[in-house]
Protein: Transcriptional regulator-like domain-containing protein
Amino acid sequence: MLHIEWWHHPAYGYMSQLSAADFAWEHLRRDDEYRQDCQTLALASRQSAHQLESFAQRWGLLFPE
Structure:
């Protein structure tokens, strides 16, 4: 994970305007474990419903039906 003081960086000023969901995504997409899980899932030739459900539950994700 990046270890910078983002709250002091001018490029991150927009963060204070984000919704809770958008802020959560900004955090999640920088998480090394999430990125590794995502890559593992993407590289699988087929994803089972169980794999997708486990991934979603682990990371607190909701997908539209």
The chain has one domain: 20-65.
